[in-house]
Amino acid sequence: MFSDYIDGYVGNSGPVRAVPSLERLTPQEPARPERPPEPRRRYRTIWISDIHLGTRGCNADLLIDFLDSTGSDTLYLVGDIIDGWRLKRKFYWPAAHNDIVWRLLKRAKRGTRIVYIPGNHDEMFRQFTGLNFGGIEIRRAAFHDTADGRRLMVLHGDEFDAVMLSHRWLAFVGDTAYHLLMAANNWVNAARRTLGLPYWSLSKTAKHRVKNAVEFIGRYEEVVSRAAAERGLDGVVCGHIHTAEHRMIGPQGRQVEYWNDGDWVEGCNALVEHEDGRMEILDWPAEVAAREERLAATGAEADRAGVLAA
Ligand SMILES: [Mn+2]
């Protein structure tokens, strides 16, 4: 009764019913159940960036699949993890986006070292540089030593937009046009899924046909690499331009490695380091397609075996 509540609260003569007992609050489970932590593909290091949680463009399903399929000693979140720019305009937060945050926190709890380097879309977290949230370290940039002794600079990469005369890379498409293209990308892929077709990046295809975009990307890669060379490093890992890439850049004998870990809006890529220091860019939609083909093949074999046994 309302009057009981008031009595209990004001008169302090009875229990306050509106407040649940803390012991009865159970830990929240994700909407999509997590696959068991073993067996998973193990890496020394994983880099992912440009997830853009809070936007329709984010490929949450593929990322959840990636997170449930892999594990590493260290995980770098290389910026634009949450899209504060879009969220400020319109709140959008489906259960799948919570599930990603849940999985990241769980990973940290299980012992993965997680370093979060906020980007320009999640720059509101830059004010917490040096702090630690649930085991996730927030840094402005980081240095990574590979197993075979290379030293790499890790940063989001928007720092170089000002250096390049063309301002922000989105300038030539505009944030809204880009957002619409990303939404279209998801509709196309929802349709393709129903038809049983694999993931295909509409925006990636579109971008590579635009001459300006290609020139921009090339210039960006050079500017970032020069920064690493000037600091005497072996290379750089960044994100920001949504284009996964590995190139050796610079004059002969003084070349540095340029790595871009891609994004989870268009390409759905991750950069990984194996135990021996070897690095590679994973194309997750291709990995999923290969896995499904393998499953179909072994399924067919099992069927055949069943027929032969009968
Ligand atoms: Mn960015």
UniProtKB/TrEMBL annotation:
InterPro entries noted in UniProt: Calcineurin-like_PHP (IPR004843), LpxH-like (IPR043461), Metallo-depent_PP-like (IPR029052)
Entries under Pfam families matching the protein: Metallophos
UniProt GO cellular component terms: membrane
GO biological process: lipid A biosynthetic process
Top-rank lineage group of the source organism: Bacteria
Record GO terms (molecular function): metal ion binding; UDP-2,3-diacylglucosamine hydrolase activity
Name of the featured protein: UDP-2,3-diacylglucosamine diphosphatase
Species the sequence originates in: Aurantiacibacter spongiae
Domain Calcineurin-like phosphoesterase: 44-243
Keyword annotations of the record: Cell inner membrane, Cell membrane, Manganese, Membrane, Metal-binding
Keyword Metal-binding: yes
PANTHER family to which the protein is assigned, alphabetical: BLL8164 PROTEIN, UDP-2,3-DIACYLGLUCOSAMINE HYDROLASE-RELATED
